[in-house]
Amino acid sequence: MQVSAYLKVSIAVAVATIALKTGAWWLTDSVGLLSDALESLVNLAGAIFALMMVTVAAQPPDVDHPYGHHKAEYFSSGFEGVLILVAALAIIWAALHRFAEPQPLQALGWGIALAIISSAMNGALAWAMLSKARQHRSMALEGDARHLITDVWTSAGVVVGLLAVQATGWLWLDPVLAIAVAANIAREGVMLVWQSADGLMDQALEPDIRAEIDTTLAGFAHRTIRFDHVVTRRAGQRRFIDMHMHMPAAWSLGRAATLRGAVEQALMSAVPGLRASIQLLPMDVEAHFDDSKDLL
Q1: Is the pLDDT of residue 294 over 50?
Q2: Are 208 and 243 in contact, with CB atoms under 8 Å apart?
Q3: Which of 46, 168, 234, 240 has its CA 20 to 30 A from that of 177?
């Protein structure tokens, strides 16, 4: 199943969980369950936007975007993070009103049952989506999956809180629980926004991927061949590497190009999705940069 297919399933599940959780809130009048339903509404909006951005990211390079559209996925993650923060504020507002006007809870058994069913659906989907996100390095899918995981923990906390209200009769536990839910999802929202912003600033490749690249280059290193100025970055599912390859000045262009092609092929075989750009230089020529920090 492709990334877009998982997001379509996520949209369908979000609609189902919204119906279940809204029904649970309507039956119980619990502000804790209302907060859980609001988070599912955010899930729906986030999944729809993620599907749009994944579709954009899959478009091939064009004149205006020669490196492709892969970074569109980071916008999805950031958008979902902002939605989470808005939902957290809405939950806190509703909880504060409930503090001022406590209301008895009703039909808690049905409300708890519906919350558990919706939580199980989200948990199963989140596990599958997170595995697929790691396989395809999809920031949009990972953001949606992590939000669903947060939703599962939120629902679990709401259920435990409602059981406590049922056992003790302390109505103030309901708005306290809602505020705790809001704080938890706000933390997740801040993390998603931060990860999205960090990704838009051209992060270097992961340490294990860089180690794989270094191992591959070491296989070609020789006293007459060396590599330097190795710079890596990632953009959504795509990975890039730029570097210099030095070789004897007496080599013909054809021989140098053949070796460069072999190095590029080895790198792309070792790291799927990698795009390599190698500049050929004679052994006795060094490139110079204005900023010494560019020398890696």
Answers
A1: no
A2: no
A3: 46
pLDDT above 50: residue 246: yes
Instruction: Give 1-44 pLDDT, tens digit per residue.
Output: 577 787 788 888 888 888 888 888 788 877 777 777 777 777 78
Residue 213: the pLDDT is 92
Q: How far is CA 113 from CA 74, 176, 226, in A?
A: 36, 21, 65
The answer to whether 40 touches 151, Cβ cutoff 8 Å, is: yes
> For residue 185, which amino acid is it?
I
The pLDDT, as a whole number, for residue 156 is 76
Q: Which two tokens stand for residue 216?
A: 């591959």
Q: How many CA atoms lie within 13 A of 109 on its CB side?
A: 0
Q: Same domain, yes or no, for 253 and 236?
A: yes
Q: Does 149 share its domain with 216?
A: no
Residues 56 and 192 in one domain: yes
Q: Given the DSSP bridges, would you call strands 238-247 and 226-235 parallel, antiparallel or unpaired?
A: antiparallel
Domain holding 268, by residue range, is 207-294
Using left for φ > 0, alpha for ψ between -120 and 50, and beta otherwise, residue 202 falls in left
DSSP element (H, E) containing 56: helix 31-57
**Residue with the two structure tokens 């560019």:** 294
CB 21 within 8 A of CB 122: no
d(CA 185, CA 191): 10
